[in-house]
Amino acid sequence: MKKQSIISRPKTLLWLAALIAAVMLTTDASAQQKFLANLSGLQQVPATRSTGKGVAVVTLNADETQATISVNYSGLSSAVTAIHIHGNAAPGQNAAAIFTVEDAATGTINRTFNLTRMQVGALRSQRLYFDIHTKIFPDGEIRGQIKRASMFADEDGDGRDDYITYRQGDNTFYSLLSLGDRVQTRSFGETTPGFLNGSFIGDFDGDGLADPVRFRVNATSGLITWLIYQTDTNTVRSVDWGNFATDFVAVGDYDGDAKQDVAVFRISEGIWYIIESSTGAPRYEYFGAPGDASVPGDYDKDGKTDAAVTRDIDGKKHWFIKQSSNGQVRVEQWGLPSDTTFGFGPSLIDFDGDGAQDLVVQRNIDGAAYFYVRRSSDNSFFVEQWGLATDIVFIGIDHDGDGKSDIEAIRPINGQNVWFSRLSSTGESRAVVWGSASDQ
């Protein structure tokens, strides 16, 4: 078994054929990275008591010169007078309007804007926000920070990942929200005899809010049942997909619709089993060999998760990446066989903020955890020591909302979990006590 963090079909021959076909493929790339904004009154500065809501999708073109926006809103107090995109401002700060959406009186809007390089930089660093103004709230009724669609632990929609833990004893997710330092709880499902339980978080409905997910595993058959709490409708979706005995969870946005897809990687076969959210149809990706470790991510910056695996060859860790933009296979060498990789998904592991997945491994030396990172922007690398070898580590978390990955180590101390974060925006170290030591 390959080391990874967190938690019958043709096999090798078909995989080899698929690999050869992929290398020969020359499809043109069509990079269309997506960003989301969940609009609410709470994000206004100062906050409003509006019950209105909205979701905006921003699609950046391949040349990074234009952005297409789609905005849907409802429940506002009065007629809309203007919709703006503002910047540069972090959550909790105000800035001037840089784009005005014309003819914005209807609840569904689609527009395209030209972008400068500085504006693209502000978009990637999550320093732009939507603001909808109304007659009753002329200074703005609802607002939403624009963030990368792959953020997986942002439950309040402000563009910063929150602290979330799952307590199996009462089937409850406990969240410490960054917006207003509020506490939120969500309970759903029941504990059933003969089943194991696990948890996950990701935005499966595309509303810009993290959806808590419970895994119920049949202790006899190994079948995984996904219970997804959809924050857009406050309903629970149940999906039977994957087997605990043979599969790794490999959540990602494989179809590029800004929604996470239910997916697993079967390590005994080297096959990806995916349910695309855009169609609801199953998809089988023959990429990898038995025993490979899955490391899905958007390595080619096209807004779609790439199937990717690592394999130990001649004392080195090799990365095989099937780029969704053109179908070609990219091979990289990074890390040692004893290193740990991060393949649970769905968050983008992006330390340089360029929108592409970086190569990262964890190496434990003398009881300390070291992270070896190779940046996608220039192939340079750095080594960061953070936490202990025994800590639970998250890579790809973004607590400060700057569009770059933070490193987080969770350590049980005196019966409680302490979250130690290294924030990328300032280099600041932060320690937050949240959850019990037995929480997931």
TrEMBL record:
Query: Which of UniProt's keywords are assigned here?
Result: Signal
Under the heading Pfam families, the entry gives:
CHRD, FG-GAP_3
The protein's matches in InterPro entries, at most eight in alphabetical order, are given as: CHRD, FG-GAP, Integrin_alpha_N
Q: Which residues form the CHRD domain?
A: 31-151
Going by the entry's taxonomy, the superkingdom of the source organism is recorded as Bacteria
- The signal sequence is 1-31
Which PANTHER family has this protein been placed in? Answer: SENSOR KINASE-RELATED
- What name does this protein carry? CHRD domain-containing protein
